[in-house]
Amino acid sequence: MDPVVRQAKKIFESAVIEAFPQLADGRCPPIIIMPSSPKLEVPADYSCTSPMQLSKALAQIPEKDGSQPFKHNPIQIAEAIVERLNGQTIAPVFNRSFERLTVTKPGFINFLVKSDHASEVILQLVKSGSVEMKHQGAGRVIVDYSSPNIAKEMHVGHLRSTIIGDCIARLLEYSHHDVLRLNHIGDWGTQFGMLLALLFEKFGDDYSKFTNEISNLQNFYKDAKKRFDEDEEFKKRSYETVVKLQSKDARAIQAWQHICDISRREFKLIYERLGIVNLIERGESFYQDYMKQVVQDLETRKLLIEEEGRKVLWPNEPKKKNEIPLTIVKSDGGFTYDTSDMAAIKHRVEVEHGTRIIYVADNGQAVHFQNVFDAARRVGYVDPGIKLEHVGFGLVLGEDKKKFKTRSGDTVKLIDLLDEGLERSLSKLLDKNRQEELTPEEMKAAQEAVAYGCIKYADLSRDRNKDYIFSFDQMLEDKGNTAVYLLYSLTRIRSIKRKANLGTIDDILNKRQAELKKDPSEPLELTHASEIKLAKFLLRFPDIILQCIDDLLFHLLCNYLYELSGMFTDFYESCYCIEKSGDQIVKINYDRIILCEATALIMDKGLSLLGLKTVARM
User: Is the dihedral of CA 409, 410, 413, 416 positive or negative?
Assistant: First the structure.
């Protein structure tokens, strides 16, 4: 499917340049919006709002004779653009897909998508059997997300980064970007010195017999931290163990690798349940040698400043007000998160050739990332054309509107959350007696789709910058903008064809051709207002995806799918697809069945891009 907005922008850009050649430098690219308000003066599928910006731009450009710029009213500008759109050069291109140009205050150019064009696109979509994006992404995008810590269980704090990062990667891959998914795990530093020191003290080289579970490691980590804080001799031994680890001492490396393997095994189980794939681990240990290179480079260039025994790097020169320096080398000679992030960004640009680098981490890290980005640009590790982005998000709150914790006040373990989701989703299915209609395999698939889907959708359906309340009761509602509602909606749409025994898409297309004596390429016959509205709304899908990619806000896609589901319901209640007399099928409207299939294809693709697994029956 071609993005309609992108197509319209190209046409309007030609009309603007033809009407106002002085704007041919592209300083005011056309702005095309998808109106949602029912209170518009005239019906419009899309509107160009550029005349207001064009009016300001033209006011800055002198006339050819050097006289003062002529003030152009936005309405006059809109009318001039419409004149060109109706002209001999551009009209044939515009009229292939669009119609009904109107100008309204304060300077909007409104237009409709042709019903025939919408029906042609829908028919081709169903014939192809898949929703392909024709937009081609440019450059390599690196997405850094999830980032758990070795020797610690993943908790609810990792949930948002994992879900949001996965969604970003899915959307970018769908629009044909070259995406590298990276998991920057915490697997190095002082904490491993104290962990290994305690392991060797308690178990010697038999530590593997007592540390085969991540929960054992987490408890062991707590003990090590307590000893580190209270016992000076143990602290000294921990630092010595860190030195051994960094110098690649065989015994220390072997024990460290054992701990990492246990953690990876547990992380993998959670990622498999959440459908997280192709996530490449690049822990802090990976960048150890690069950190040394960064320090050497910055010292050679005299960019590091001694401050209270530390070596720091100021992100900007001159310094900004209230700016915080990056600590590149600690007073004890060790490295910090600042060092590893500078090394990582250098590697991602120079070795991985990233042109857009996205970091998915909570809003509390916004200042840190801004400092790292500024510093990386200041020292020349990142060229101006490379885009660096921190994708922040709010907290997960409990129903008491406080940070989500267990009743005992501990951090909620992610594995416990997923298990509870499975229990609750099964209960929901049993309450509806679905076990009477579904096979055990179908019940299990539906249970998992609902459990994991409701958790993901509750996160993505909200503005990611805001905190949200984690409530299984709300997530599992089968009404409103929830995963359960949308998954049920999709299965109901799919059941229309199945219950009528219409066979495959090819069978439907062949029956349509035979019964209606229509050429296979002849557009669908859409005449009812609700089916035309549905068909046109389906065409918005690629533009919604591109908007999500630009803004990295995924509730836009969720809202689209929810609105699409409601629009389909209106269509299905207003337009018969299959007429029955008792249990006997009297008549089938194949064009409307094809519209149903197109809706199912779009909904399925949209939900899968959000990371939800769809099922045939629920």
Answer: negative
Q: Is-contact 245 192, C-beta < 8 A?
A: yes
DSSP bridge partners of 388: 357
C-alpha to C-alpha distance for 161 and 489, rounded to whole angstroms? 28
Would 615 be classed as within a structural domain? no
Give the chain's residues under pLDDT 50.
none
Nearest to 156 by CA among 553, 556, 458, 609: 458
Hey, which bits of 125-241 come out as E strands?
140-144, 178-183
Amino acid 500: pLDDT:
87
- Show which of 113, 136, 164 is a domain's final residue: 113
Per residue in 499-526, pLDDT tens? 888 888 889 888 888 877 777 778 889 9
Bridging pattern class, strands 578-581 and 584-588: antiparallel
Q: Nearest to residue 241, comparing CAs of 200, 198, 193, 207?
A: 193
Peptide bond preceding 318: is omega within 30 degrees of 0, i.e. cis? yes
Structure pTM?
A: 0.92
Residue 54: inside a domain: yes
The β-bridge partners of 580 are 585
Q: Are residues 446 and 558 in the same domain?
A: yes
Domain boundary among 393, 426, 448: 393
**Could you give the count of Cα atoms lying within 13 Å of 549 in the half-sphere of its Cβ?**
24
576 in any annotated domain = yes
CA distance 613 to 607: 7
pLDDT value at residue 69: 63
In a domain, 553, yes or no: yes
CA separation for the pair 511, 505 (Å, rounded): 10
